[in-house]
Amino acid sequence: MNRLAHIFSKWGISVALCTILWPTVILPQGLTHQPFSLKAGVYIFTDITSSEFYILAPTILAGYDAWRNHRLSLQVSGGFSYNGIKYNDHRHHLYMVPLMATFNYDLPNGNAKVWPMIGMGTGLLWKVDHNLDFSQTHYSLAYGFHINGGLKIQLKNRMLLTFDLMYNLIIPPVSEDVGTSGVIVTTGIRLPVKNGEMVK
Question: pTM for the complete prediction?
């Protein structure tokens, strides 16, 4: 059973990695616009053990649209989450690096300056769990799936203000590993880019 779970984990990581990498290598070559996004927020753990131990982790995410066709787009993004906590007189540090590929769909809202968005995708999560007192470090790489929704608000100079809510389902590499599934709540901005320069 453990061997089967290991095979599925390797397969899932490979599929997620290919999904993230192929648009960054193939698609951008023919693009004239690549909206760039920068968001900040929190990663709220939903696993019982993680939610009691780490509670939440401040998070930053950056990404760009590798492909767009009218209302549908493919966004490639990466980020960083961190939380440090003292438990039983021992200091623990948790570092997480999510890498995601997400298909987003902008719901129609006429000529309004505010419109909703929904999406789904796959990704990888690299985790480093470090116990400072024991000088022990645990590394793991897991794959997962996510669904998200949010709002985009039109600002000046074609900038957008965004509010996003994402549920990130992470499949742990081994059943004994602490689950890192969670809800990512962020707010940020989107800046349109044309031929490598910011659009004004």
Answer: 0.81
